[in-house]
Design brief:
single chain; 332 residues; Nucleotidyltransferase, domain 5; 4-stranded antiparallel β-sheet; 8 helices; 31% helix; 19% strand
């Protein structure tokens, strides 16, 4: 740092120490979260070990959860008066605005159905993405990727604008929050961010055409009584033609609601299909254990979910059947 022009000091090596964080500086989010968490701790909240941005407060008469993402906050409770009291308390420390019942959060649209279920959608976000790529009038595709389609490293010429490719693929990764059926195809195109080529860009445009035809699709979160976990996973074996690494995909259900999903290339080359499968099982079991830990910190007793089921899906990434149509009831 340097002293600003016009500042007079006897020692030219002295710099200014900020009394508060300035918005836009790297240390601003850390200082803000420290201030906010300190305020919540003073009124009885405690952050969970599994997710430090999730704060909980339990009393004899109420339960209150506060989820924080920088300066966007979701509050859920067991009684409406508790939320009103919390908002009043926070208003004495911060300038805040109550947006009412949850309807938008970080680009995700939340619709409350008459049955009490929630529908999560990123329709507007996807529309903006299609507008950026001039594909609002494109022809829809039935699937995000052809099952037998390969993406080799060097097959065509490099794209003229790699920054555009990286920007769109990065935006597609955020769309995975409500579109688990895109996980495999987006993971594939994400592996070529450093040197995208024309056939990689064609694969991205097919994903965008699929989104054009499924603009209103999203996640349905139901009220459940069954609290068992069920995980579906599978791994191919050396299917990547460049490095022969395997790909693992899984999804985890809490009752009838899908709560976690992923598709990633394994870090090492598996020596057999059995090894590839066991690596996939390890990943999904780790996720289920983390989810159980999170629920226990929310005081949902482990006795309420004493078991989980793990199903290994064969042909999950096969050449004949694409993963997003193998089990339509899983990713619906």
């Amino acid at each position: 740092m340097q002293q600003p022009p016009g500042f007079l000091a006897t020692n030219p090596k002295l710099v200014c120490k900020l009394h508060k964080a300035i918005y836009g500086l790297k240390q601003a989010p850390r200082a803000w979260f420290q201030k906010l968490s300190h305020t919540l701790n003073n009124i009885g909240f405690r952050s969970t070990i599994s997710d430090p941005s999730l704060f909980v407060r339990f009393t004899n008469s109420s339960t209150l959860f506060v989820l924080i993402y920088v300066d966007d906050i979701i509050i859920t409770k067991s009684s409406s008066t508790t939320i009103t009291s919390l908002i009043t308390t926070l208003s004495s420390h911060f300038a805040l605005k109550d947006l009412g019942p949850l309807h938008h959060f970080l680009g995700i649209e939340v619709f409350t159905l008459p049955s009490g279920h929630l529908h999560l959608s990123q329709r507007r976000y996807i529309q903006n993405l299609l507008h950026r790529t001039n594909m609002l009038d494109s022809n829809p595709q039935p699937t995000p990727m052809i099952s037998s389609f390969k993406l080799p490293k060097d097959a065509t010429a490099a794209v003229p604008d790699p920054s555009m490719f990286r920007s769109i693929v990065g935006a597609l990764q955020y769309a995975l929050f409500t579109r688990p059926e895109l996980t495999y195809s987006v993971n594939k195109v994400s592996q070529f961010m450093h040197s995208p080529q024309e056939h990689h860009w064609k694969a991205v445009k097919r994903i965008l055409r699929y989104l054009k035809g499924t603009l209103h699709h999203g996640l349905l979160i139901k009220c459940i009584t069954n609290t068992d976990f069920m995980g579906f996973c599978d791994s191919d074996w050396g299917n990547d033609i460049d490095d022969r690494k395997s790909t693992t995909g899984y999804c985890v259900y809490f009752g009838s609601n899908i709560v976690s999903w992923s598709s990633n290339k394994q870090n090492v080359v598996s020596q057999s299909s059995t090894e590839a499968e066991y690596r996939g099982i390890t990943v999904v079991l780790t996720d289920i254990i983390w989810l159980q830990s999170l629920l226990s910190q929310l005081r949902i007793s482990p006795l309420l979910f004493p078991k989980f089921t793990l199903i290994i899906l064969e042909l999950f990434y096969s050449q004949q059947i694409p993963f997003y149509t193998q089990k339509p009831n899983i990713l619906s």
